[in-house]
Every structure is written in structure tokens, then in C-alpha cells.
């Protein structure tokens, strides 16, 4: 039985990855802040370990075959690049060193599609496309790109594989994180939507991509885990159809978003935390589209419709609410 160590185990992707690993017969060591954050079931092949990831992990990495690093700083309101770099880059470098010393052969790093150049309705971004604005001004995306470059240049005897998921939707989004976009339209009489779009993917397919990469991924490669390129209007229309809603759909003018971005830039200069910024507002105006061809061909992923991801997310949110 192969043993895998996973960080970020209590998040949306980490939970889905561990559930699939256990279903596939892997033994899993999940590194967590608090064991109480685990949303999945107990399993004899799952060991939850409360630990500071910046500490010495050597005592728990013996006989581990693969290290999957998912944990990251993803909040969009932090003001200083070092707040992102310390977690997304420096910590990743530390974990690579720890894994290498333990003799682990494979290191999988979960990054973001926004370290790669996006496309539009005419063509889609690929793993070969360089990062583009507005993500060149995103502190989060920049920290992830720095981490990718470091890991690929310092892998030594290890195999390092980079996974670049797009916008993930699905169950076990406990915070919620990306699932917040569901609440943007769900049970609303008026839905205000940006004119841009992005690539959406079922979190279960991203989890499958990570697991397939353990056996099929090529060292030194990046893999976009992506599926449906949709405008925000088209995505919200899916939510409306699935939930039986008929809200009034109102587009947000680009100039309004740009103005909000300028306000956010000013607040940030005053050291006030906010999700608003020119780069974040510009991201809502573009068609942030990607191709999944490489992950289909090399990792053998069979992507499922995003409708299923929306249904899974809504069902999870309803179940969570009923428990509360």
C-alpha cells in the first residue's frame, strides 16, 4: 500500500483528494492545524496529525512515497507580498527540503491557473503561456509563481509536478472558499454579474487529476486542471436553472468595477484590508479561459459537467445548514 502525505487536508480540495486517495487504497498522513477540522469519515488508513508545517517533519515522513502540498494562503485582502510569500513560497521550499531529506520520490504542488497566461473566446490559455495582467499584479498569483519556479529549479533527486487548477466548485467547501460564488446568485431576486468569465471545474476532477499525477504525471511539468469556460452570466444561469430560480440579471458596467478597484487601491495605501483592488476588479472583466487538453491526454482525466459541481456544492451547503 502506497503512503501519501497531504497538507491542506481540511480545505475544499484537500478533503476531496484524501477521500479519493482512501477510496483508491492509499494510506494517508494528513497534516492539519486541528483534527476537528476534518469533514470526512474516519478511516483506518487515515492518520490526522496536528502540526506546524514550518517545523521538523522528519519523524512522520518515513516510508512516504509521495508528498502532496495543497495548503496555501489564498485570501485576497492581504496588503503585503511577504504575507503571501512566507506561506506560499518559503513554506513550500521548506516542505520540499523536508520531503527530500526523508527520501520521498515525488512532490506534487498545487498552484493556480493564474500563474499561466489565460485566453478568451477565440483561444484558450495553456501550460506554455506566460502569466498575464491582471495576475502579474496579484500578490497571491505572484507568490504561487515564485513557488513553482523555486520547486522546479531545486527538486534535486525528487520528481516535482505542478498542478494548476482553475476555479473549483463542489462539496466540502466548509469556509466557504470558492463556493462563495454560489451565494452570489443563489436565492437572489436580483443578480448583478460582471461581464467577464472564467474556467470552472468540478473539485472532484481536480482531486482525480492529482491522484492520477502520482502515477502518470511527468516530473518538471505543469498541468492545467480545467473544464468549462463560462461567462459569469452563463454560470449564474446554470445556478438559476438548477435551483429553479428566475431572478433579474443585471450586468455590472466595467467602469463601475474599475472605479471600485481605484477605491480599493486607495484603501490599501491607507493599510486598510480589502478585497478591492484594480487587479482584482480587472480579473472580473476579462475572459479568463484555459484548455485542459494536456491533463486529458497525459493524466487521463474524464471531466464531468460543472452542473454536477454546482449541485454537489448546493447540497453540501444545505446539509451543513440543516446540521447547524
Describe the protein's architecture and organization.
This protein has 324 residues and is α/β, with parallel strands linked by helices. It is built from ten helices and 13 strands. The strands form three sheets. A seven-stranded parallel sheet has the order 3-2-1-4-5-6-10, sandwiched between helices. Strands 7, 9, 11 and 13 form a four-stranded mixed sheet that branches. Strands 8-12 form a two-stranded parallel ribbon. The longest helix is centred in the first third of the chain and has 21 residues, at 81-101. The radius of gyration is 19 Å and the shape is globular.
Which strands sit side by side, in order, in the main sheet? Answer: 3-2-1-4-5-6-10
Average per-residue pLDDT, rounded, comes to: 95
Number of domains: 1
CATH class: Alpha Beta
Number of strands: 13
Q: Distance N terminus to C terminus?
A: 38 Å
Which stretches are low in confidence, meaning pLDDT under 50 for 5 or more residues running? none
- Return the string of H and E elements: EHEEEHEHEEHEEHEEHEHHEHH
> What is the count of DSSP helices, taking H or I runs of 4+ residues?
10
Q: Which architecture name does CATH use?
A: 3-Layer(aba) Sandwich
Supply the CATH superfamily name.
Answer: NAD(P)-binding Rossmann-like Domain
Largest sheet: 7 strands, parallel
Question: Structural class of the secondary structure composition?
Answer: alpha/beta
Rg of Cα set:
19 Å
Helical amount: 25-40%
CATH topology: Rossmann fold
What overall geometry do the principal axes of the alpha carbons give? Answer: globular
**What fraction of residues sit in β-strands?**
15-25%
Amino acid at each position: 500500500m502506497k503512503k501519501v502525505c497531504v497538507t491542506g487536508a481540511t480545505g475544499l480540495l484537500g478533503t476531496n483528494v484524501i477521500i479519493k486517495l482512501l477510496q483508491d487504497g492509499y494510506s494517508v498522513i494528513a497534516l492539519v492545524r486541528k483534527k476537528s477540522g476534518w469533514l470526512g469519515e474516519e478511516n483506518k488508513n487515515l492518520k490526522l496529525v496536528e502540526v506546524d508545517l514550518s517545523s521538523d517533519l522528519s519523524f512522520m515522513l518515513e516510508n512516504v512515497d509521495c508528498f502532496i502540498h495543497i495548503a496555501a494562503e489564498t485570501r485576497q485582502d492581504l496588503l503585503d507580498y511577504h504575507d503571501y510569500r512566507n506561506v506560499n513560497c518559503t513554506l513550500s521550499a521548506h516542505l520540499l527540503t523536508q520531503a527530500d531529506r526523508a527520501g520521498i520520490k515525488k512532490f506534487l504542488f498545487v498552484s493556480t491557473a493564474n500563474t499561466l497566461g489565460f485566453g478568451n473566446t477565440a483561444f484558450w490559455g495553456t501550460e506554455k503561456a506566460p502569466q498575464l495582467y491582471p495576475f502579474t499584479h496579484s500578490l497571491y498569483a505572484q507568490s504561487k509563481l515564485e513557488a513553482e519556479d523555486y520547486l522546479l529549479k531545486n527538486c534535486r533527486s525528487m520528481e516535482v509536478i505542478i498542478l494548476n487548477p482553475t476555479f473549483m466548485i463542489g462539496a466540502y467547501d466548509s469556509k466557504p472558499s470558492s463556493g462563495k460564488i454560489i451565494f452570489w446568485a443563489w436565492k437572489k431576486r436580483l443578480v448583478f454579474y460582471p461581464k467577464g468569465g472564467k474556467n470552472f471545474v468540478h473539485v472532484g476532477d481536480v482531486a482525480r487529476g492529482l491522484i492520477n499525477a502520482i502515477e502518470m504525471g511527468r516530473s518538471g511539468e505543469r498541468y492545467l486542471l480545467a473544464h468549462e469556460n463560462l461567462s459569469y452570466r452563463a454560470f449564474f444561469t446554470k445556478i438559476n436553472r438548477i435551483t429553479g430560480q428566475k431572478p433579474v440579471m443585471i450586468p455590472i458596467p466595467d467602469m463601475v468595477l474599475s472605479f471600485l478597484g481605484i477605491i480599493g487601491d486607495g484603501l490599501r495605501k491607507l493599510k486598510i484590508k480589502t478585497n478591492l483592488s484594480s487587479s482584482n476588479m480587472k480579473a472580473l472583466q476579462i475572459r479568463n479561459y484555459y484548455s485542459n487538453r494536456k491533463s486529458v491526454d497525459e493524466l487521463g482525466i474524464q471531466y464531468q459537467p460543472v452542473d454536477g459541481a454546482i449541485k454537489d456544492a448546493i447540497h453540501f451547503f444545505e446539509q451543513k445548514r440543516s446540521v447547524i
